[in-house]
Design goal:
Chain lengths: 472, 472, 472
């Protein structure tokens, strides 16, 4: 029999469908974190097994840190618009051992109730969707770790990240009691909250990497080389594309006609950007640009459309995607000039640049009919659709929020990584210290686990079981 | 708050469930195009990276060409039963920049309204489902391109393909105003519209390849060798199997008890065909047939059941699958006799033969109770279930439609590829011209991107950004 | 038009949502069987292509044997609480050719009707969910086959397995007319029915392997070595994790708030166990434990939480996961002491031990509010939540059921494999006989299909088509 404690979502079939759709979207987003690991081995080669264990770790860490407190700091009713109340029910670890029916098993999360978004998501549904989103955001940040950053440093940083760094922009922009939300700022599925903010956090980390590299006498940062592994790279873009099917359309937080429109705007932007990158790159080189540009073309389109997928028409999504080609190529050229960091997977040209660009385009391409359908009826038409003064005001709000968030995320991220660096004597692994500390520091050391050149360590493994590995 | 513009699907919980199911099915089908790329590298070896970029390109191209016009030419109310009206609302590019509430954001696609299929799909839902189906159809066609066909030729062909070649059979058979549909022809999920028609289009392309190879003095077509890559081949069949979970059951265009029956008939046919191929092949060789036959066995069953998965009982599906074994082995033997083409991935023995066979079986195995449940109540019982004269008439209709569609698709495809060949001086890449034109024709040239022997081109990459690749 | 035969699930929107959710869960579980194949090549190396064809075969076999009779022996109304009635409608092969509206196309499966679970699943929905569960259970059993067991032996065993061995515990514990269910035993998603019982069946097979190895004069069983293939291992844990998103939450057999809670308890346990294994292993070796321990850590948490994911709070799930680390390491140490079998993929330390442990924890960690939400309102609070005498009684019931089921499954499995061994002259492939019988026994012989060193056998293949492979 259907237990009484769960009747609340059952007495409304729209709420039931909304929850079913959003939890499926959450599952699709959940896949994306490990997909970023495949993106790394696809672009850097199978010896980057660190990337795989890293994204597995991020997936796990995101879930429990978000459950402990991170969901509340982002999405509970805010304290002065600044940060979600960590004590708001269900509270720490989603209520911990509480079997009370208020909170997790029954009731609707406040911001999805009829006074706010009105989509009737349960606390569990909304938690899963947002925890998955936070997870993939940090996966993006982490692509600049490469083999350079100690696993311990990255892990400690991730705990802070899911507690406050990811959460503040979410509390400000996505939480209906956040100060930027109340000011009128909108960011549909995270052009800023996810992509550009990931770029700002990544910038803080590469800056600390550079400070440590420079102090070791390096003239420029060690550049990481591209080694395409075609199968894994293709699998990664497939999984990321599938994930975006949840990421953007799930951000409607409901299941209705607009969800389908958002799938369409998302996919059209991806297709157009793919074609645009391939075309302009071909024009430059008169050669087929290959898989690397194909994948980055798709990603660029997906990132650009993310902040406004629910606000624009299919035609606008197509135009935005076409802009993606020149923008990506220009961004790649620009960021490759700096030799004090290395960004082979493209955090800055794709996510930082694409996210910031897409966010700014809200004030140009929004059509109120589409924004209304995704639950943002207050968003005015963009400049290209007769928005006039209201659109200009919206542009000011978006740019203001963009600058504030990038500065805040960079500052907190740098403070965090700086403290971690002090605490563990540097976040980077020098060639030398790597050799010395091989058995004493939890640096990822998965060299034997290469795919294409498997090494037998079964004897060691059997010994592992009985005693610690001998310090050869 | 739930916006007013989307109330139309919300006031009917059945429609809501139908849309939710069909969009999930669309996502599953969406995966299949790139899965065909994995099938190619799984059967031909990882150096076929062209296959991967090809299927990524097809995925993107399908979405935008279908959005621009292809969805309408297939599914809008037809002009004289022949072709869908390209101007029907929402019109080109799904309405382009139109923010009007009629069309995409509200309203139900005409053919799923209560006067026709009665399942209440939104325009967006139905578009996504059919665009994904068109995409995977062309992926099947493209398996005969191998490394022989210029990427530019394939791309131009695909634009025509999604505009008219895929669309005509769909307009005739799946569109409730199509002339073959009105004549009583049925093809549940595309035994003809997808699989056999893909074979006819592929035949046109291999014929043009052969004409060009012959004119270069070849006595027989260059045969492509099989190199099984076990991991990728297994991944491809997993993804295709999962995709078929959407492909056939999604073709109910609704969510009801019959969807589950269709999953069952689909999976039973796949299982039975797998066992049948393995058994008969083992009988021939007294050796385990291996992964290649396992995969083709499953595919053969899935293709055979596709045109009638919603019309038959589990028992019939099992029988149909068992027939798959001898049929596949006979088809493989038959098609391998011809040396003027090469078809290592099995477009002809699996998709052309299996699709045509399954379509013909409609007139033998249909049971009206099942057909009714999938919304095809006019379909009579088959010959094996007492259908008698009505079943014979149905057989005539199906065979008539089969012949007409195969001829039409072959003819239009050949005309298209012939024109393209004239325009770009041949669709094939000769060994010689490949060398010469390496840097001037957009042939896929992904040699450095092998999986098992990664080559470092990061330095080139950094140069790429600043200037065109030097013509070494 | 919506056909009349399917109105039954349509007149209840909760039933519609329940069916939609559970069939999606079934699809996710369906993926897990082949994911176990990827787990094997991920841990043992790409030359274990047998693992891939094996799991493809299991997927297919499970569906058709469960359809023929296995679903009924497990889930039809039982004969005396012992075994489901194989003749219960729809009967063999899900009704075979019956087009009758009673059974598959209409009506609700009896145990999900309002007198029992009350979730309104159709026969097809429930069949797909349970067939997928049975399939993955046997995939777990089969990980001890390695390259040692003849494919024919495994295939015959699987037919018996899906007819009666998997089915008896399901009939006893999951069937609401089963004798252990009526006694009050609960096993939420299969800590015993799936994981521990797989261990018991696997034990029977390794015992028979050992008997044959010993009779050939071996002093200890040939140990299989670990060769990590990082990409495939990561893909396997991603697919298994995604599969568990259906496995546990789908076991609510409905879509309601509790489904979300079960996703959360499942994922929290996985995350906590991952961290716990990594931490304790690091403490032992002062080295990063690497991908192998990461993956086993996640699996251990997922297995432990499976029998009680729907009964406990997030806090308890977290604690249970943390226990997973020491438990796995102790189990690995314990089972590696025995040299008469080899278990490199961890059937015994993960699935047998983890499943049995989790089942026992029902009597400690259950909170009635959560159990009620998952439809098990009779389950008392655990000992840690004031359950007192009722919890002790529950502990007795669970342990009694555990012992009975493990003994029964081991006994029937051993009897089955012993008979098969007699019938086909041994289930194992000796090095010698492998050479001799290469072309006459359907042993898996896929050596040419390695991933990282592809061997061209296209010429053989072309010959295959015309005549049997020559007996070189």
């Amino acid at each position: 029999m259907i237990p009484n404690v769960v009747v609340n979502i059952l007495n409304n079939y729209e709420y039931l469908a909304n929850n079913l759709w959003v939890v499926i979207a959450a599952l699709l987003i959940f896949i994306m974190t490990i997909a970023v690991g495949f993106l790394e081995i696809g672009e850097l080669g199978l010896e980057y097994t660190e990337s795989l264990i890293k994204t597995i770790t991020i997936t796990g860490t995101a879930i429990f840190v978000m459950a402990i407190v991170g969901f509340n700091t982002a999405f509970a009713p805010t304290i002065g618009g600044l940060i979600g109340n960590p004590f708001y029910a269900p509270g720490f670890l989603l209520g911990g051992f509480s079997g009370s029916v208020s909170g997790l098993l029954s009731g609707i999360w406040w911001s999805t109730g009829s006074s706010y978004f009105g989509t009737g998501l349960t606390t569990g549904t909304y938690f899963l969707f947002e925890a998955a989103s936070a997870s993939v955001t940090f996966a993006l940040v982490s692509v600049i770790a490469l083999k350079k950053v100690k696993f311990s440093a990255l892990f400690i940083f991730s705990v802070v990240y899911f507690t406050i760094i990811w959460n503040l922009p979410a509390a400000w922009i996505w939480n209906p009691s956040g100060w930027l939300y109340l000011m009128g700022m909108r960011d549909f599925a995270g052009g800023l909250v996810v992509h550009a903010a990931a770029g700002a956090a990544g910038l803080a980390i590469v800056y600390q990497i550079w400070r440590e590299e420079r102090s070791r006498g390096l003239k420029e940062s060690t550049q990481v080389k591209i080694k395409v592994s075609a199968g894994w790279l293709t699998l990664s873009i497939l999984l990321l594309w599938v994930g975006w099917f949840g990421f953007n359309p799930g951000s409607v937080l409901a299941f209705n006609s607009d969800v389908l429109v958002v799938v369409i705007t998302t996919f059209l932007a991806a297709s157009a950007s793919f074609i645009s990158v391939m075309f302009f790159k071909y024009m430059q080189t008169k050669e087929n640009p290959g898989l690397l540009y194909a994948v980055n073309g798709i990603l660029m389109g997906l990132v650009i459309i993310t902040p406004l997928a629910g606000f624009v028409s299919p035609g606008s999504a197509f135009i935005l995607g076409l802009i993606g080609g020149p923008l990506f190529l220009a961004g790649e050229k620009f960021f490759s000039r700096f030799k004090w960091f290395t960004d082979p997977v493209g955090l800055f040209p794709v996510h930082l640049l694409g996210g910031a660009f897409g966010l700014s385009m809200i004030a140009f391409f929004t059509q109120n009919a589409f924004a209304t359908a995704s639950g943002n009826s207050n968003l005015p038409n963009g400049l290209l659709f007769g928005g006039g003064f209201l659109a200009l005001k919206q542009l000011g709000i978006e740019e203001f929020g963009l600058v504030i968030v990038l500065i805040a995320v960079f500052a907190i991220s740098f403070a965090t990584i700086w403290i971690i660096s002090k605490a563990i004597h540097g976040i980077t692994v020098s060639e030398k210290s790597l050799e010395k500390t091989k058995f004493t520091i939890p640096v990822l050391n998965l060299a034997p686990e290469k795919d294409f050149e498997p090494v037998d360590f079964s004897e060691e493994k059997n010994e592992d079981i009985d005693k610690p590995v001998p310090k050869k």
